[in-house]
Amino acid sequence: MPTIHASSVVEPGAELAEEVVVGPFCHIGPGVKIGRGCRLLSHVAIRGRTTLGEHNTLWPHCVLGGDPQDLKYRGEDTELIVGSHNDIREGATIHRGTVGGGGVTRVGDHNLIMAYAHVGHDCQLGSHLVIANAVQLAGHVCIEDYAVVGGASAIHHYVTVWQYAFIGGMSRIVHDVPPFMVVEGSPARIRKVNAILLKRHHFDQAQIDRLKEAYRRLFGGDNGAPVGAMSRQLDELAAAHPDDWCIQTLVDALRKSSLGIYGRHREATRADNRYTNPVR
Q1: 212-251 pLDDT, tens per residue?
Q2: Fewest CB within 10 A of the end CB: N or C in the chain?
Q3: CB within 8 A of 59, min separation 6: which ones?
Q4: Catalytic residues
Q5: Rounded to two decimals, what is the model's pTM?
Q6: CA distances (Å), 145 to each of 58, 128, 129, 142, 170, in order?
Q7: Is 65 within 8 Å of 29 (Cβ atoms)?
Q8: Pairing of strands 124-125, 142-143
Q9: Sign of CA dihedral 114, 33, 69, 99
């Protein structure tokens, strides 16, 4: 049976699995489903059609499943799905999706989302992420597995942060972030290969060396080759290392970003008209 503090409110229709612990002064709405072993420490609010997996820890004053902060939202039945073994710290907010963005915001497994971070509507977060304090993710952001986003960074809507990327603190991210790279600054620039994180995850040194050579070829010098030259270099890298999945992943990500809009490949998938003013 779940354990629910007397001061908390669990609305009829909410579903709480075995071993869920609801601390004081929490509010759980009628469309919420909470998996086994989750802990709501205190003052947690979960709203809307929100589903939590198992063994998540929600710290005081975090809010999950709130209405999206989108002027086009008209109360549609949208969803937030959170995986298992996530640590969601004080004051963090994660909003449900919108119809125009597919209707679902997703968070994977084994993530640390630190205090006062915001995950906007329709974001798609992978697993094993670190989202540091006060990070702001606009709507429709995609962050792939094992990425790290430094504190107080802001990420523009429709940006993709590819796997094993690292974003330095207080960065302004308006373009896709390539996999395996360190990006930081305002405006943000690609600084180097994320070698420390790769070594922590037992990447082969030869793979890291090939990524460093790819960095020098693609982003060295003035930190960016012309579009035509970049395209040729991507072709050459892919042909030179056909069996290196790191190089192939990097090449594929950069090609997708170059085919997108404003350096954001997901921008080309948006269903709404960005020139229409949403009047409330």
Answers
A1: 999 999 998 655 554 456 889 999 999 999 999 999 999 9
A2: C
A3: 41, 44, 87, 88, 89, 90, 92, 115
A4: 121-122, 139
A5: 0.95
A6: 21, 6, 6, 10, 21
A7: yes
A8: parallel
A9: positive
